[in-house]
Amino acid sequence: MTEALPRILVVDDSRMVRSSIIKHIRGRFEVREEGDGEAAWEALLVDPAVQLVLTDIGMPRLDGYGLLERIRSARVARISSLPVLIISGEEDDSARERAAALGANGFITKGSGSAELLSALESLLRLAQTERELEASRAALARQSAIDPVSGLVNESYLKWRAEQDLAYARRHGANLSVLVVEIDRFRELVERHGAQVAGLVGRKLSEILASRVRSEDSVAQLSPAQFVLLAHGSELAASCAFALRLQQALEKLVLSYRGERIGITVTIGVANSAVDGLASVSELIGVAVGRAENGRAAGGNRVFADRGEVSEVSLASARRELTSIDAVLRQLQRGDTEAVAARLPAVIAALAPLLDLIESRLGCDIPLSRLKQIDKEAGVAGVNGGAVHPMP
């Protein structure tokens, strides 16, 4: 059985140029040809056999730069990792630098001989094959290890396994499991402006920040270049929202520098909670958090969204004054976590106020109700003015 030839997508608005290229490489490669970047993009979406893209720069509808940007920012891994060779009549350094910044693997001028063209194509295909084999080895290693060797975060398989365990525990013990979906705002614009390499560095920086801010019992995984998921075991919704808001505000102040240009980073975070949302599976819980992150992006990004819409300092202060789960407080006391309960005493007092009123009216125990209510009132004012919040009790 004859082995299939590697398929190359040749993109140029000149039929003569395409014919010339095909003539040079006939017999060594199978060729699919398109006349502009838009048609080439559509071909890549439906043709998984393409192993390399050879494209001109100046074309109608979508030029070579635009095609390259789309390829590198594609959510489909087989497309985003394709080797791309630019072939153009433009020989100035600025064209080469721009192509390289956008993620081109090579640049060759029109009119180059067959030997040079074939050498460039074969070299890129060998490199791509080696990278695929390395990725396969890395994936196999990742399946055996909980930690992704690139990001340093847990891998997706472990995250799903751990999430199911945490959710089952939460149901058995009446505890909480919160899911935070963290998405880098305007990630595609970041790729288009600075290139896939810089966007990847931004993602790795966010990985480091997330890994350094979570508790040992929490899990963080990267689901895509722009999307991360955090599982917060035992964290109530209000505490998770407080953590998400602080994370969003901290990243808003972070500025990276690349080649003298300052790059700001913002994130949008969607928060879901097993006790509040009452969903049957972890996939559903993550899906709800993703939907809330989408709502945040639609509102302009750089926001935190939960079950009641956008999360703010004011809404958090209000939530802290709402009914506190006395069962949860008692469980904390049974575990010996008195400091965490002490930090929430005003909210506990507010939750118990109706019961204390009833006890005092029936039994006359001289409970200092006025003083307790004053403590609750003072705590509410402190919360609005930036009082401390303990995100992950």
Walkthrough of the structure:
With 393 residues, the protein is an alpha/beta fold. The chain folds into 3 domains: 7-141, Response regulator (Rossmann fold, 3-Layer(aba) Sandwich); 146-311, Alpha-Beta Plaits; 326-384, no CATH class. Helices cover 54% and strands 17% of the residues. The protein contains 17 helices and 13 strands. The chain has helices at residues 15-25, 37-46, 64-72, 77-80, 93-101, 114-144, 156-173, 187-194, 196-213, 237-252, 274-277, 282-298, 313-320, 326-334, 338-343, 345-363, 369-384; strands at residues 7-11, 30-34, 50-55, 84-88, 106-109, 177-184, 219-224, 227-233, 255-258, 261-264, 267-273, 304-306, 309-310. It has a 6-stranded mixed β-sheet with strand order 7-8-6-11-12-13, with helices on both faces. Helix 10 runs antiparallel to helix 13 (313-320). The longest helix has 31 residues, at 114-144. The chain is elongated. The N and C termini lie far apart (64 Å).
Content of β-strand: 15-25%
Our Rg estimate from Cα atoms comes to 28 Å
Order of helices and strands: EHEHEHHEHEHHEHHEEHEEEHHEEHHHHH
Tell me the number of strands.
13
List the main descriptive attributes of the protein structure presented here:
elongated; 393 residues; Alpha-Beta Plaits; alpha/beta; 13 strands; single chain; Rossmann fold; 5-stranded parallel beta sheet
